[in-house]
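Lab notebook: predicted structure, single chain.

Context: the supervisor wants predicted structures on file for every construct in the current expression panel, including those that have not yet been purified. This is the next one on the list. No modifications to the sequence; it matches the entry in the shared construct table.
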Amino acid sequence: VNKYRAAAYLMSAVFAAIGGIMLGARILSAEVNSGAPYLMDAVAAAFIGFSVFGAGKPNAFGTFVGAVLIGVLQNGLVMLSVPYYAMDIVKGTVLAFALAITYYRRK
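Prediction complete. Output recorded below exactly as produced.
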């Protein structure tokens, strides 16, 4: 178990470093808080994958489907010209609905 846990932490650190380098190259800056707008999307994708598509178990496929769903939702909101401050409200509502489905299934 310890070997797999260490490997998982190592892989997570490598992917986080690659993501940080790519984000820094994209915005041409190295600010500490530059990835903050992506946090809501990442958390929502993980919880939607966990709750709706994962049947209460964390899995990579459910997280991928949740990320695709959040991406389609984001793109649709942009195409509908929804203001930027309302996008987080819509994504938060979708996240709350997904978590409500999870708790409803457990009861």
